[in-house]
Amino acid sequence: MKMFRSRSWFGGGWGRPKNPHSLEHLKYLYNVLSRNQTVSEHNRELLVETLRSIAEILIWGDQNDSSVFDFFLEKNMLSFFLRIMRQRSGGSNYVCVQLLQTLNILFENIRNETSLYYLLSNNHVNSIIVHKFDFSNEEVMAYYISFLKTLSLKLNAHTIHFFYNEHTNDFPLYTEAIKFFNHPETMVRIAVRTLTLNVYKVDDASMLAFIRDRTAAPYFSNIAWFIGKHIQELDMCVRNEADHHSQNRLADLVAEHLDHLHYINDILCLNITDLNHVLTDHLLHKLLIPLYIYSLASHRRKSSLPEGVNQAVAKILSKTLSRPDSPRLQDPLSGRVSCVVALFLLSQVFLILSHSPLVQSLAWIILKTDSTVLDKGVNKLLEHYESEKKLLEDSMNNEASAVNFTSKEALLEDLRNITDEEKEKLAKNPSENVAMHKPFLETVYSALDCSENDYGALFALCLLYAMANNKGITSDVIEQVLKPKKSFMSKCSSKDIKYSYNVYLVEKLLLIISLACQPTCRIRLVTLEISLKLLLHLVICDGKNILLEPHRAVIETAKSQSMTLLRNFYKSEEIFLDMFEHDFRYCDMSKSSLNVEWLCMDSAILLPPAGTPLTGIDFIKRLPCGESEKARRAIRLYFLMRNTVLTLSGEMETQLPLTNPQSCVQIEQALDLNNSDLIACTVLYKDGMKMRRFLVIDVLQLILVEPDNKRLGWGVAKLVGFLQDIEVTGDKDDSRCLHITIHRPISGATTNRVPLLSAKFLFDDNIRCMAAKQRLTKGRLKARQKKMQHIARLLEIPGQSGPPSPAFTGQGLYTCRATGRNLRENRQLFTASRAPGFAAPKRESSPGVLHRADESRRHRDGDSPHRLSNLRKELNPSPSSNNVKKETRSREASSSRTKSREGSPKMPRPRSEEIPLELIKKASHSIIDMAPKINILPRPQSAKTESEPCASGLINDNAQSKESGVLKETTTISEETSFIGDRQSDKKSEEREAV
Prior knowledge:
Blueprint: H1 2-9, H2 23-34, H3 44-64, H4 67-74, H5 78-86, H6 92-109, H7 113-120, H8 124-129, H9 138-153, H10 160-163, H11 172-177, H12 186-200, H13 205-240, H14 248-269, H15 273-293, H16 298-303, H17 307-322, H18 339-352, H19 356-368, H20 371-374, H21 378-397, H22 399-404, H23 407-414, H24 420-428, H25 439-446, H26 455-468, H27 475-478, E1 485-488, E2 497-500, H28 503-516, H29 525-539, E3 540-541, E4 544-545, H30 549-567, H31 574-590, H32 596-599, H33 626-649, E5 670-672, E6 679-684, E7 690-697, E8 701-707, E9 714-722, E10 726-730, E11 737-743, E12 755-763, H34 766-794, H35 852-860, H36 867-875, H37 879-899, H38 917-921, H39 948-966, H40 975-994
Antiparallel strand pairs: 1-2, 3-4, 5-9, 6-7, 6-12, 7-8, 8-9, 10-11, 11-12
């Protein structure tokens, strides 16, 4: 018993403490470590659990008990970690993984600076960093690099001295990490880049001086070499994957190159002058100029050699590229890539990098390098650029020379060193000589040739667009080439301004645009879109269109050609309208900003243009396949050209979209439904939910409303859908049900038609069900027909002249609506002049059948004081007036029928006035015997007054007129409707007699 007590008292006790988060538990774990300092197969599990528990207690003590760290430092427990790492026993790697994980968790979760300083003291952390771990073990490598990245996140002006020793010029955290910059694992490379950026952000002069003097040159040189080797692999992949068989490898290589450029841009954006100077120098001398830019002019040198020499050079180059130890790219003649790949990579460079000294020199070399300097090498090329830069700065500083410098003297200066033949050629066509003696710019212009396809033109356009929009390039470099130039005609006044632009480049772009509008062209939509964007950038200055008249005529001709091409696909089919509206939404969303950077992230454009959707390439980045895609291309081509012409003319779009959102009802909007046609229904959703709604059918929309509790006769829109997007089918089992699907409009992001509503509509009876189905079907047809007519007017198709429909220009049925109100605004859905029972506009001149009952009712309800005389004329028609009535009856039918219903009360029709079903089913040309179906009651006999002879005479004359005149007209009207009219007129005659 005494022995047990003594052992329990020693070192906090052999028994495990009950509280795992306590100083006593840490003392217990310390005893376990001290008695298991040698790792073996038997105790490695115990050591792993002990290390995990130590990290947990230290994190708890950091927030709750400072004595925990005091004990940890007093016992120097980090020394146990080092002893375990340095052992070479069988279980050491297993324990090292847990040890690195413990350290990573510990440093990641500690928040107290004092505790952090305790852990970093005694230099044990640096000893762990420089330890030679077995990096062949993937887990050891992963936890080690994660541990280094976690330490870099703790770097600041106070903690940097725990890692960087100024006296010994030693910085193990940085020097050990950069060794894994080109590690095969992507996560390791990302961690190293993050660590170096965290190091560069620390504002410590001595540490930055150490990096600049000791590590910057070799590290940045290795970066340039690794990127160059990577680019050569990418070029070989493009050459071998022309059939789109394997795109994953190419996508990985392009993504890796983008990561490199973004990492370089992050370093340059830190604005560390010394580091930026070293990095820029290595990139220009060893990567960007010798590999990227010189590849643009490599075909020029090969063309000057014999054919056999070309083949030998190609063999040597292919062997060189396939060797694992490719030469460092210090010699500009050592390695080249294809012109297409070079243009693509340079586009990425100018889209991502914006460091002015770097992109300024690259842009100047591409745009202004002379062929005489090209063969002298990279060093001479950069020296020439520096000298020209100094001369330009001196000329800008010299005000006297700037004032006396005129456009004429500038032209003479340019012509000073050329021959007379060249002067004569320049005078004839100066636009063709813009790229004379400029090999790199000439290569870019040559790539704009789209006579066969636009494979190289797309990358050349991307490069020009990227340089024109790079913020790091000053205007003096790209002016007159990629930017309009302004020149003042007089020194005193700034009103007289002369604008000029690169005519040669504009003509190249106009040629691409004209070819794209041809029916058999092989130019992709993305190429056309970039051409139009670049054209607008070149010819719009200070908000003005400076395009010359001949060039404007080319643009107008191209727009007419696009319109003519689209006319060939104009059809009355439903799919054309859906494609037209979908593609307008896409172009409307993408016309504001063309993200060329996203375009250059797609590796698929590096392969030859594909003509099938099976490759998975986006539609605008490939050639159309089939008639449907050709129609889509023609639609988008028309939209692009239309938008460009409107932009050049400074006009706003007023005809598109086909449906104006301002003229549409919105959800939760209050509607005035007085005197409107409402059909009550129950909406049965697929999930079993039921809702009572009222169905309203407008010119463009189907609206489901519920009554407004605040105002009688008003409703609130709960669901709104376009009539053109509905599908209506009947229910075989229930004649009162309809299955209605309302599709959402196709968005620009996806072509999937996700239903807005798909439910069963249950009506009160089959009559209302059939009426709803008929109105929905006719409304859908009319809505689509009106939009197709609007498209025909836009395309100037013959026979479709006139202004567009008011429903598509924001006026529609809702002329009384004020824009900019809240969702529950007070406005009428239908105006007071609309007849009940109609949800579509009135047709003033539609053919119809004249009802005699309606005609008599119209005269009876009229406000004229001579109503009785009019009635007499009606009942005693003269032979001459009878013929006039016959001729004008068909023209007055529609208006009289519509007006006759304005004052009629809303009440059900009596059963006696309904049309027999057997009469409806019979053909209009069949003879119908109406005698057994009509019961004419005899007139009541009463004592005659003084006015009765006159009245009876009128009635007898009316009866004779029926036999002689009215009954003769039964051949021109429907027998069923005449039957109703006769019965109604007889009843009204009887009522007048009774009166």
